[in-house]
Amino acid sequence: MLVSVMGSDNEAAVDFITDPSSFTITIPADQSSGTGTFTLTPVDDLIDDDGEMVTLSGETIPSSTLPMMQTNSVSIELIDNDDSPEGIKLELLDSSNAPLSILSENDGETEVTVKLTVEGGTTYSTDTLVDVSVAGSGNPQVDLVDFITDPSSFQITIPAGQDSASGTFTLTPEDDDIDEQDETVSVSGSVSADPTLSITTAELTLTEHKPLPTLTISGDPNEVKEGDPASFSITLYGRIASEMTVKWETVDGTAESPDDYTEDSGMVTFEATTDPEHVQVRMVEIPTKSDTEAEENETFEVRLFDVTTTLVDTATLVDTATVTILDDNKAADEASQNRVNEEVLPKVTQVIATSALSAITGRIDSVVSGAIPGGLNLTSGSSLYHALKSNEQALEDGTFNLAQVLGGSSFAVDLSSAEVGEYNSGTEGGGGLAVWGSGDYRKLSGDEDNEDSKVEWDGDIFSFNLGVDTPVRPDLLAGLSVSRSMGSFDYTDKTGSLDLKGSYKSSMTGVHPYLNWSLPQLQGVNMWATAGYGWGEIEIDGDSGDKVSSDTTMQMGALGASARLLSSDTWIPGGTTTLKLKGEASLAEVEVKGNDGDGIEPLTSDVQRLRLSVEGSHERPLSRGALLTPSVELGMRHDSGDGITGTGLELGGALRYVHLTRGLTLEGHSRVLVSHEADLEDWGIGGLIRLDPGAYKRGLSVSVAPAYGNASDSVARLWDQDILAWGEDDQAANDSLPQARLDAELGYGLPALGGDGLLTPYVALSLSGDDSQDYRLGGRLDIAQSISLSLEGQRRERPTASPDHGMAVQVKLDW
């Protein structure tokens, strides 16, 4: 039998090889089968086809004994393992087969080769016919043919099994006299038999060989002072075939309209010209805004858009210009300095008036109470050690403030030869001349939480008052006080986007005559009055501006009275009932003269204060010389004017038990701020247990004083509280959790120096609610009631710091 091997597809290539391609198989006699072999080798090509069937068929060879017979056929499938091609890449080549992407307008006739390359590493199994077309962008404003192609479309065939093919066309650019943009020639392909077949597009740029006109915009100049107009130059250089319009608009930068400049937009027109060097300039002017806020220099832009012709050089096109608005620092500084003055001056006025008035009333109270006029107190603390300890850090880092230490100092010296009793009663026609002085130190700060003010400031004022007075008759005291106040503050003005910082200094010298009229025969009526005139200067030095100053003047006046309204043994049986009234009113005005419009403007600040208190007490004698004294006091205070204002009403009460024979004192007191316009909350309770050896001070002395909250005696806190305590910045302190405190001291008085002195060793303890503890150990030596020496050691423990220790020696002289 003859066996033949054949394939189903022989068009593209030989897909397999057989050896042999036909052969014979003999079936022996008396056998039902026979076998034969051949070799089949598939061809592994890169052609993407559908695979092929290999078919084996046979037929008998005719003989004398066996006629020809057909047999069945069998097939073997050859499966193609090649991926389909990814598409066709279209390239443009010049005559040297180099890539071609740019032609100049004056290059003349050029033969362009279009090369098609099958991508993906495989080929098509059939011929691929590609339709190639050539098109260009042209100039939409000019009815001209910008290039000629021959032909404009043609076909390229990629043979089956081949990976590339090529064709050519002729491109002739039109070399005209028109300045125009570069143009693009686009060459694309498609396969009509398979529209989905991906073919890339190639582009060829026809460049303009003549210079194109340039269009730019620039600030003229690039910086302007705020308030001055900003000018912009829109410039066209070169020739254009037809009239051209350009639109423009302002664009916010760090400068924003309408706050910093006036938003605007418009259009400019350029005329057609054939002069290649012709320059056309159009100006645009934008108003800027002037203000008194401190801010950084700011910028805004003018942008060109909608150019109605493409006949400009896009490579050199400048379509945006930026102008910087320079902040007017002088105007901002002057406005800031006046804002600072308006914020600080009223509060400084209050302090200056309060300091002078407090010094005078303190002096009058000491005279009326019969205090010995000779004495010196160098510090307001309980000891010199406390004063130095509170300034320990300042001593270490070199920022020690002597004014702060002297803030509570005072002295009084009797220059006459009168005895104490004579000084108190006075003599007809005069006598009892005395000199006195006091210091006052106050830290001040602006209200950081006040939304109405953007000025933050802090600093201090030191005032010193020096006075002289004499009782011109037994019931009339006349005196003169000279005051000197010096304040220094740092400020930050946050009104604008840029913080302005600087310093504010004030000084004031004042002269204050005063009178006190005492009428003991009229229920202890005591009246006083004072007036004052001052002159000084303020100086404001901004970090970014000039130092400016102005003269100031001050006028002030005050009067007050106290009286015992009632003292009766019958009003409440069993004791003496006393009702006292005390009140005062004051006003002060500070005028800033200004400096002729160069910085500080004229300003007047006035403040008023009214204080009134009523105290009632009932002293009831008990057995064995003891006294029980309940008391109640109501106080009112009103501050008005340009400074911090407010009205407060406070109620206080106390119960005191004194046993003179045993030297025992028991006391409890409390106070509460009943109401205040600023909604402040303030209260406190306290007590005292004291055992002392009496006037001779020899023997055991014990004192224990617990307190909770602001536990000032009766309504003294409302009466004496600093004028600035009514600000909202004290709200947090007043509303904070009350603190507990315990002060205790144990001492024993011993005779010393042969009986002329008294030595008192003592130990003391102070505990506070923040887990702080102070331990003190020391001794006091008093000599003849005029000299006091003390030596004290202290240990201080704080929860957030290591314990510290100190030692202090204090000398006190009275004369």
UniProtKB/TrEMBL annotation:
Keywords carried by this UniProt record: Calcium, Repeat, Signal
Xref: InterPro entries: Autotransporte_beta, Autotransporte_beta_dom_sf, CalX-like_sf, Calx_beta
Pfam families cross-referenced by the UniProt entry: Autotransporter (PF03797), Calx-beta (PF03160)
Keyword Cytoplasm: no
Domain Calx-beta: 205-305
Any Gene Ontology biological process: cell communication
Annotated Gene Ontology cellular component terms: membrane
Keyword Signal assigned: yes
Domain Autotransporter: from-to ranges: 432-689
UniProt-recorded name of the protein: Autotransporter domain-containing protein
Originating organism: Aphanocapsa feldmannii 277cV
